[in-house]
């Protein structure tokens, strides 16, 4: 979605409009990640073998990376496109900084 739907509100702060379906998908993914982290916490409490804990930590890192990539993709397809169409080419520098942070 683009910010033409709430021009006044978005002029005051940066927002991203997401469909209910997209929010549902992202929330579901975050809930899975939260469960993974709770699982790691329990593994520590149960004195589980280091390798097993590290494998689960790697899985959480991958899940977070995948989530970040999905949000970045949406940002590029929607927010960035909208900004470029409205003459804001500074958004390109912002996206480059984001890509660097995600690596």
What does the model show?
The protein has one domain: Up-down Bundle (Methane Monooxygenase Hydroxylase, Chain G, domain 1). The longest helix has 36 residues. The chain is built from 4 helices and no strands. With 103 residues, the chain is mainly α.
Q: What Rg, in angstroms, do the CA atoms define?
A: 18 Å
Would you identify the CATH H-level superfamily?
Answer: Metal-sensitive repressor, helix protomer
* Main beta-sheet annotation: none
Number of domains: 1
- What is the name of the CATH topology? Methane Monooxygenase Hydroxylase, Chain G, domain 1
Strand content: under 5%
Quaternary arrangement of the chains shown? single chain
Order of helices and strands: HHHH
Q: Estimate the helix proportion, in percent.
A: over 70%
- Gap between N and C termini, in Å? 27 Å
Shape: elongated
Strand segment count = 0
Ranges where pLDDT stays below 50 over 5 or more residues in a row are none
Which CATH architecture would you pick?
Answer: Up-down Bundle
Number of helices: 4
Question: How much is the average pLDDT?
Answer: 88
What is the name of the CATH class? Mainly Alpha
| Structural class label | mainly alpha
